[in-house]
């Protein structure tokens, strides 16, 4: 029988890589897996986290292992490339940091065995990802197992797959459930026992014989119906030699149908089921990507609390446990590979192997409905023939491996609606940030209306949208200020626009959680992307979290916004309340101030005198906060960029004239301003070509920049691509802008 042991304990780690270790030395660090060497330097800014070859060493006694004829070492994730050695013998090499892989050995084990794993997240042009807005944490950051089996066993060698594949097809109210198992050469011709049990453990169907593929018909199947009813069956397979069971495997699965319509959106089991949810990265503050089960579970519980019914698992294959949670919580899921940002011709084979692993390893999950081919792949350059051909190969491969699901792609905002790239996948989504990266919030919905008019037969969704917020506050929020208030306003506006467009097959907020992006220098806290609805450490739900809870969740609640924004200078201040109840009452110091009826978002103008306790009530629910009248704005609420070239308050403004605090778009309205920024843009493009290894700043990118203030754009580009514009040069530019009258 198969035995699986955790191999997470008693590892030793070193960054020394002059030679392959032959054993544990005193200089090595004792670690327990999961482990990443970038849990600190990968999220503190500077884009200087350690990328290179590091080694893990484990010594174990062969006599302590269960008796077996063959052993497999199973790695659930090693980023990004790995070489495995046992007692000096090279067992194998794997490229791809987010999928399961296994290497076998049958050599005699001795009392002291030395297992060495070299893990490498170095820069290269072969293994994806290499260019993206997140940290590529290195390490053995997921579980490692040892699997002991007999020579005859269910397959463990095929792209890290589970050895069992279940395909349920609904027809006329019945379910045809095909269970197929894969065996190795020694097991061919042996008897298998296949069985299906319902969620309660009752036997539903079974088969015993030498066939490895069998179709069962379930007359009245219990359907997996997303958040409403995530019902799961269990398929088990036994490999038999007479009365002896040689091996056993199994998998949960769900029975459901789905459809995606360009006009009406997403359907689950024949019912309209609008997909409205979030995207998720797999890291957190102080931990990196070496997450424990309790971390994954907390993430899922928070996503469920906000009311989401769909998750985009960006931008790579996530932990197997999290796909299980998606099934169990009923989250309709988008799964994708890290084919992102920059097409690398030398990496085509790697995209294809990573796609095979993603599909084969996760085929049985009913939550998954689309396989993502790529994300923002044209951000660093236009479509070319090699890029198109690779997408065709990936698309065809997915449909061959899995004819039951759709393919999709997350398109960068600037990808033209008539691009030939859009002809390849079954459905598409766009990453749009109007209202944050250029433009304004009102542009989002109309853009999708234009897409639908131009491509009426291609389903379209929103794969990313969002804006950043930290613990900064203001009563006059504006684009680019990184305040919690602007983020709340932004999402209120996007919710209204999405709600009015049911044809959007899926929408995914970017992002559910703040995440590590060591190259970022934004918002006053470097090394992170702060677009999350929840903070990086999962300790604080931003106000925007509750905007979605009001829209999407059935759990009755009321939330008073702005509880971190206490000191206010104005005599009358705006107070916002979110609730999914139809009526909200606002109390000031215990006295009823105003009662309002509405939907989701409730706005009040409140007198600001002395210190006021504000209580929002909706039915049996209430939430309380405090505001306090002050004479001078509390500077603790004002953004001060850490390591910024310039802060906005360092810039001289002259009434009626331009400054670096004006947007690129506004300055471009003036001929003088346009000429001045043209010179700046030219130098930016030259600097960018050196700093970002080929990222292009084309016409479409320039359009997106219109919504940025000049100082914000300079600070962002300094952090993300290392663009060097000296402070004194910017101040000289500001002096010139101060002489140009505003149009």
General description of the model:
- The protein is α+β, with helices and mostly antiparallel strands.
- The chain folds into five domains: 3-149, Sandwich (Jelly Rolls), CATH 2.60.120; 164-253, Sandwich (Immunoglobulin-like); 260-555, Alpha-Beta Barrel (TIM Barrel); 567-635, Immunoglobulins (Immunoglobulin-like), CATH 2.60.40; 644-737, no CATH class.
- The radius of gyration is 28 Å and the shape is globular.
- The model is unreliable at 688-698 (pLDDT under 50).
CATH homologous group name of the largest domain: Glycosidases
Overall structural domain count: 5
Mean pLDDT: 93
Strand content: 25-35%
**Count of beta strands:** 40
What is the subunit arrangement here? single chain
What structural class do helix, strand and pairing data support?
alpha+beta
Main β-sheet, in a few words? 8 strands, parallel
CATH structural architecture of the largest domain? Alpha-Beta Barrel
Summarize the helices and strands and which ones pair or pack.
Blueprint: E1 3-6, E2 11-14, E3 29-31, E4 53-60, E5 70-75, E6 81-86, E7 89-95, E8 101-105, E9 113-120, E10 144-149, E11 164-171, E12 174-181, E13 191-197, E14 203-209, E15 213-218, E16 224-225, E17 229-230, E18 233-241, E19 244-253, E20 258-261, E21 265-268, E22 271-272, E23 275-280, H1 293-306, E24 310-313, H2 320-329, E25 332-336, H3 348-362, E26 368-375, H4 385-401, E27 406-412, E28 428-431, H5 444-454, E29 460-464, H6 484-499, E30 506-509, E31 515-516, E32 528-529, H7 543-552, E33 558-560, E34 567-568, E35 572-579, E36 583-588, E37 591-597, E38 600-607, E39 611-618, E40 621-629, H8 664-667, H9 671-691, H10 699-704, H11 710-721, H12 727-737
Parallel strand pairs: 23-24, 23-30, 24-25, 25-26, 26-27, 27-28, 28-29, 34-40
Antiparallel strand pairs: 1-10, 2-3, 2-4, 4-9, 5-8, 5-10, 6-7, 6-9, 11-12, 12-15, 13-14, 13-18, 16-17, 18-19, 20-21, 21-22, 31-32, 33-35, 35-38, 36-37, 36-39, 39-40
Helix pairs in contact: 1-2, 3-4, 6-7
